Amino acid sequence: MIEKDIQVINQLGLHARASAKLVQLVSGYRSEVMMAAKGRDINAKSIMGVLMLAAGVGTVVRVRVDGPDEVACMNAIEDLFNRYFDEGS
Amino acid sequence: MRRAIQGIPAARGVALGRARVRMPLMLEVERETIQPDEVEAEVERVHDAIEFVRAEMHELRQRLHGALAHEIGEFLDLHALMLDDPELLQGLDTLIRTKGYTADYALRKQRDRVAHVFLSMDDPYLRSRIDDIDQVIGRLHAALHRRDADLQGVAGDILVTDAVAPAEIAQLQAQGVLAVVTTTGSLLSHTAILARSLHLPLIVGATQALTKINDGDVLIVDALEGLVICEPDQTDLTAHRKRVDAFKRERKQLNRLRREPTRTRDGVDIKLWANAESREDIAEAHGLGAAGVGLYRTEFLFLGTHEIPDEEKQFNAYRDAVLGMTGRTVTIRTLDLGADKSDDTGLALRDEPNPALGLRGIRLSMSREKLFEIQLRAIARASAYGPVRVLLPMITSREEVLYAARLFDRVRKSLAEEGVAVAEHIPLGAMIEIPAAAIALPTFVSKIDFLSVGTNDLVQYLLAADRNNEALGDLYTPLHPAFIRMLSDIVRTARKAGKPVAICGEIAADEAFTPLLLGLGIEELSMHPGSFLQIRKAVREIDHAQLVQSSRALARAKDRASIMRWLESRTA
């Protein structure tokens, strides 16, 4: 199990489009992915869960990945956040 | 115990029956549990429904192309992810397995659990995502019942709910619902207009209906006075029978006007056109002596289907309408999708930030020229079977009129080259339903052959008041001096140019407004044939010369109160 704090840096935060991208990404991995922010703990493979995080720009999200491909998965997640979810900024 | 609930009568009629209560934003479900040996079958039902919806969405995704694919695609992706959501799916399984819930009830439980979280969020964007979830859940619920689709037990009942969509009203009537009572809504909503034309008694704004009425209660709906009586006593039942008789007598008296002309007391003939979209409407319009069809809506060809109708399908529908009117003119309005009329073909953008100000009517047609061309071809071909006119919705400017006229010319030429018979002259008209069109009318009135004023939208846009927003209540009204002045200007411009102008919209079919419209110089009204006799009766009671005389003050009225006073003095 690996755990990391990642900050939301894209302007719009985890709104519908970014959330959809995140869920699509982590669903491709076998590991279990949990995310926590603002006192809420959610399954990152659930779109409703990710939306419920309501994580705007600047929010720090605690990401927990547990499973056979956890390292690759965590890297991919970090990469997506740092690429501003491909939204430019 | 007897309870009386007051609302606003939106479609006349009376009914007696049992209440069928549909709670808002929740699924209508039986609160039954199932036997242990039925659990696996119920779980399977859920999974079948999910598969069905998934295929349905996939199919919709496949049909999208261009900019639409991008815009709508994003929402479809979001919805598809919701369908795959492990929280939602496993949650359902668990609820059915551990609690013995039915699939429907489990679905509702899940929806409510999620809704609770979303609706408590401060961020309005996230709060509104509940709409996406509701859409997905709604689709799932429909899929669960795709075999027994006709809402069990609604026939012979009175639906009590928060709101009813326009598309649903027709379905409810077809299913045999006796009357509808809603807690929200306004007199001038599309739903109300539709209910009136379908003769389905409707009471809106009965705010206490959901708290005071229980499923199965006996109700008397008096949609003449706007009164709902729950668990009526003997006195109520006697009064109800009297009202039913009075209503029948009223109908009978009207029926005597079937063969009479629509003529004022002093001999001015008023043209009554029919708004129509079905064979039944056409037949009814024909039988009631309509001047022709003033507004043939074509949206129905695009609604309730997943396919954009091809030229042949459109041609057949238009030709049948033309043949059905046996030589009387049929005015075919080109596609007017958008706002509260979203389709299933993915053509209209459901998720526009402001659909009423969005890509609808002629704008949608212009953005999809091929589609527009196909529709114009189908209309031109139908013109070989009888007189046809083309009406363009949502016009804002001369450019749009010229664009449509050019395209229509091109279409007719190419049909002629193909050797297809087309009428020599097909009049082109503009719908005036946006203030810009009314103001710019002098710039393009010479380019069109006739005008049709869509008052519902014109009032809405002129006053910046959504007619479906009950919070605005009184703000949406055709009795605003600005509207009366605009209408009077339209009539004057049209008359100067020698172009006929018809009024289509709610007020054309409402006898309370007949003196107002005739007073302003309108001589053509277009409405659902269901309102013909009522309007004919109103017209026949009018002294036209005197009305026109006294209406000069009307166009100069300073406030709504004086317009109302004038109108009341005419109808009294």
From TrEMBL, chain A:
Name assigned to this protein: HPr family phosphocarrier protein
PANTHER family (alphabetical): PHOSPHOCARRIER PROTEIN HPR, PHOSPHOCARRIER PROTEIN NPR
Residues annotated as domain HPr: 1-88
Main subcellular location: cytoplasm
One Pfam assignment: PTS-HPr
Similarity-based family: Belongs to the HPr family.
Species annotation: Lysobacter soyae
Keywords carried by this UniProt record: Cytoplasm, Phosphotransferase system
Compartments, record wording: Cytoplasm
From TrEMBL, chain B:
Residues covered by the Phosphotransferase system enzyme I N-terminal domain: 6-129
InterPro entries with a match to the protein in the record: PEP-util_enz_mobile_dom, PEP-utilizing_PTS_enzyme, PEP_util_C, PEP_util_CS, Phosphohistidine_dom_sf, PTS_EI, PTS_EI-like, PTS_EIN
PEP-utilising enzyme mobile domain sequence ranges: 155-226
Organism of provenance: Lysobacter soyae
Signal peptide per UniProt: none
Subcellular location per the Swiss-Prot or TrEMBL entry: Cytoplasm
Keyword Cell membrane listed: no
Co-factor(s): Mg(2+)
Domain PEP-utilising enzyme C-terminal: 252-543
Function, as annotated: General (non sugar-specific) component of the phosphoenolpyruvate-dependent sugar phosphotransferase system (sugar PTS). This major carbohydrate active-transport system catalyzes the phosphorylation of incoming sugar substrates concomitantly with their translocation across the cell membrane. Enzyme I transfers the phosphoryl group from phosphoenolpyruvate (PEP) to the phosphoryl carrier protein (HPr).
GO MF assignments: phosphoenolpyruvate-protein phosphotransferase activity
Enzyme class name: transferase
Catalyzed reaction equations: L-histidyl-[protein] + phosphoenolpyruvate = N(pros)-phospho-L-histidyl-[protein] + pyruvate
EC number: 2.7.3.9
NCBIfam families in alphabetical order: PTS_I_fam
Family assignment from sequence similarity: Belongs to the PEP-utilizing enzyme family.
Name of protein: Phosphoenolpyruvate-protein phosphotransferase
